[in-house]
Amino acid sequence: MLLEKLCNSIGPTGYEGDTRNLIKDELKIMNLEFSIDNMGNILVHKKGKNDKSNLKVMLSAHMDECGLIITSYNSDGTLKFSTLGSMNINSLPCKTVLIGKHKIRGVIGLKPIHLQNKKERTHSISLNDLCIDIGSYSKSETKSIIDLGDFAEFNIEFEKFSDTIIKSKALNDRLGCSILIEMLKEDYNCDLYAAFNVQENIGQRGVFASNYSVKPDIFVSIDTVNANDLVDIDINEGAPVFLGRGPVIPFKAGISMLDRSNVKCIRSIAEQSDIVYQRIAGTRKEGQSTSVQLTGSNMKILSVLIPCRYMNSIVSMCDLNDYENTIKLLKKYIKSF
């Protein structure tokens, strides 16, 4: 399964090479031409069947996942680190990681609870409380194995919990990358561009470059959104998002207003085709939407989001039905042009 391969590939922010190579191999099998810009974004252009159509539609997802970067050595041989992207620090202690291209194994260490004082047991965990232990006994030994600036990824494999529920690292946004590849398997009347972007987790940097290169008429962000169906939702916090009830199609993403005509169009297509989807007013985070607006291009923007539980922690869950329904809906939407 392509999605499983993508999720198991290594691609922390700024170190997306392994994931990029996997996507390149898939595109070559499909005989699709693509380019890679100086930032590392992959850009695919599939010419439309209708030579008279000048409409350019761009689908965008990001390759990078949250990860860690080694920042310094401790005298006892352990390593200090920082995060690559925003993540839940409380999910890090006692997790295994793979460091650098040689995948050196380590454990994120935290002072054992029975050795903590009262203050330590009650305060929130910070990165200063954590270190990575690779089993080294000295700083010099660690320096001979690990370089400063090496990345660390979480040692978590893709796994099915049932016929439809999966758990994995990097669902945000290998789901989107997999959907882009599925979309490229069919022909459309419009000119279709697919952008596999880098460095989304540290300011949506990659999408600036890819969007500016294409200057599309319609930009569609394919990403994930927090599913909050396991917690009590305050009505003032907005509508809940559920696993298994289809992709989320909002009118607003963070501070960005999405194109209402395209939102209504894709929602109408879903209803006419009996494809389940979730209607919400907006999401807290803008994702790629604000970034593409800042390029100054005159385009219409749409977001199609796949619900995931436990986003921005080391492991997430999603429902494959939502993934499949997103593909079905996007194909019908693009073929409507």
TrEMBL record:
Record: residues binding Zn(2+): H62, D223
One Gene Ontology MF term: metal ion binding
Gene3D superfamilies: Peptidase M42, domain 2, Zn peptidases
Keyword Protease: yes
Pfam families xref list: Peptidase_M42
InterPro entries linked to this entry: Peptidase_M42 (IPR008007), Peptidase_M42_aminopept (IPR051464), Peptidase_M42_dom2 (IPR023367)
SUPFAM superfamilies: Aminopeptidase/glucanase lid domain, Zn-dependent exopeptidases
Alphabetical UniProt keywords: Aminopeptidase, Hydrolase, Metal-binding, Protease
Cofactor: a divalent metal cation
GO process terms (BP): proteolysis
Presence of the UniProt keyword Protease in the record: yes
Residues annotated as the enzyme's active site: E200
Free-text cofactor note: Binds 2 divalent metal cations per subunit.
Family note: Belongs to the peptidase M42 family.
Protein name as it appears in the record: Endoglucanase, aminopeptidase M42 family
